[in-house]
Write a structure and sequence with these properties.
Length: about 80
């Protein structure tokens, strides 16, 4: 059955709400583990691409909502 565009619009609102709730829950989880022993281990400086990205100025000085650079990358 074909629905007019206006009738299907409610399902898009539900998907946005679910996405927003999941994002907020993940941020609350990050806030809870930041600065504790539960946070992920830091990347080493062995020269791999992950370590270079995490240790870049963007994630160590500019975008720093958390003390762990790995959580900063996961936020973006």
């Amino acid at each position: 059955m074909s629905y007019p565009f206006g009738e299907r619009r409610g399902s898009y609102g539900v998907s946005w709400a679910i996405t927003l709730v999941v994002f907020i829950l993940v941020q609350l989880f990050f806030i809870a583990i930041d600065g504790t022993a539960l946070e992920p281990t830091r990347f080493n400086d062995s020269g791999d691409i992950g370590g270079r990205i995490v240790q870049s100025e963007l994630f160590t000085e500019r975008i720093t909502p958390y003390s762990n650079p790995s959580l900063n990358i996961a936020t973006i």
